[in-house]
Amino acid sequence: MAKEESRPQQNTAPPNKAGLLRLLLWRLPWHIAGILLASLFLSLMVEYAGLIFWWPEQGA
C-alpha cells in the first residue's frame, strides 16, 4: 500500500491591503507619533552634545 503524502495547502491569495479608513485612523497616527518621538529624541541628543562639548561651564 502506498502512503499518500499530505502537502500543506499554500495560500496563493495576496494579502489584503489596508483600506483608506484604517490607514487614516490607525497607521498614520502611529507613524506621526513615531516621527515626533524620534525628532524629540534627536533634538535632545544634539542639545546635550552641545552642552557637553561646546558649553562646558555651568550657567552658560
Automatic annotation (TrEMBL):
Keywords recorded for this protein, A-Z: Membrane, Transmembrane, Transmembrane helix
Keyword Transmembrane helix included in the entry's annotation: yes
Membrane spanning residue stretches: 30-55
Record protein name field: TIGR03747 family integrating conjugative element membrane protein
Organism lineage string: Bacteria, Pseudomonadati, Pseudomonadota, Gammaproteobacteria, Enterobacterales
